Amino acid sequence: SHKAGLAGVDASWANRVIEEASRGSRFYQAAQQKAAAVADRASALAASAARLRASPTAAAAAAARADAAVEAIEAGERDLTRRIVHVDMDAFFSAVAERDDPSLVGTPHAAGGMHMLSTASYEARKFGVRSAMPGFIALKLCPALKLVPIDMAAVKATSARMATGVFPTFDPTFTMASLDEAYLDVTDYMARRPHLSLDAVLTEIRSAVAAATGLTCSAGGAPNKLLAKLASDVNKPNGQAVVPASRDAVLAFISPQPVRKVPGIGKVTAALLGGLGVTTCASLIARRAVVVALLSPRSSGAYLRAALGVSASAVDGDGAGGRVAPRKGASRESTFAPTADAGALAAVLDRVCVKLAADLGRLGAAGRT
DNA sequence: TGCACTAAC
DNA sequence: GCAGGTTAGTGCA
């Protein structure tokens, strides 16, 4: 219910409908087992935290280490000098479909098919329909829902229009984070226009996106990428928000945010943190001693940084919206009906390998082992 | 080096 | 009747 457009949904009703449609399926069985395993891990973490607190010396040492970690981040990593923008298209695949087929305007529809939805129109979201939901379950929530196949060529062309016609004006080094999200560093752009506020720049960018694509987007402006991304969600859809470049403003913005909203913290990690009494960024800072003591240095460091509103400001894309880092892998997978028939399994492997080999041929790459 | 797990879109 | 596909990072053996 924290996703855009889902706030007004009767969650208990929607959950009941989904539960009824799911009960008895292998998928649901597996999901319940996984959820139970995660709950076990969370309570094990909670028990570790209780043991730590029961030992005054260990607790004091953990607290000292956590304080030192926070001080190091504050002393060396907080950067308020850049003006970063995150642009996020509203219900992108569905918006493209609606633009190209006006009969969809104002109706509940979703991009995808019976097996999986990529996104849903805001009209459909009122019924609890959302991305990553199978179409056949969405239809139980909203019988009038229209499933619209994804026109990937139109989606890519629309994305390319922003990448070539809009973003370079504001920042030639912008990065496309996906087909419908981009990061821009508008510090230099603003230096050339001293009269413009960051809020005014967001308005300019959103107007330019609308003119180039015929679609609405939301935008966030802040001193770094994490805060800009969170800010772009605040007034979604078709809205914008700014986090001022002061430590106080940053902490005021980040503190009440649920840790689940931090990119990199998914359902499982949020549940594990919950076992430590952590739900919001403020509570993560409050419980920093157990976080630092019980999680890996990489994980706890990343979470402390996020909860303090500290993150990278460098956008450093190639400006063309292409891939910045070199490719590290290529893979193919396909879901198939359960079977113990060796011939059927071999056929699945064969199909997948043939496709992967073709991909590697196009990439000029080969497997090592 | 390979695998399991987690995460993002 | 029916619950996806691709890429990447982390931690561990």
UniProtKB/TrEMBL annotation:
Keywords carried by this UniProt record: DNA damage, DNA repair, DNA replication, DNA-directed DNA polymerase, Magnesium, Metal-binding, Nucleotidyltransferase, Transferase
E.C. no: 2.7.7.7
Record domain UmuC: where: 84-266
GO cellular component, one term: nucleus
Molecular function terms from GO: damaged DNA binding; DNA-directed DNA polymerase activity; metal ion binding
Substrates-to-products reaction catalysed: DNA(n) + a 2'-deoxyribonucleoside 5'-triphosphate = DNA(n+1) + diphosphate
One annotated GO biological process: error-prone translesion synthesis
Assigned protein family: Belongs to the DNA polymerase type-Y family.
Entry protein name: DNA polymerase kappa
Residues of the full protein shown: 171 to 539 of 736
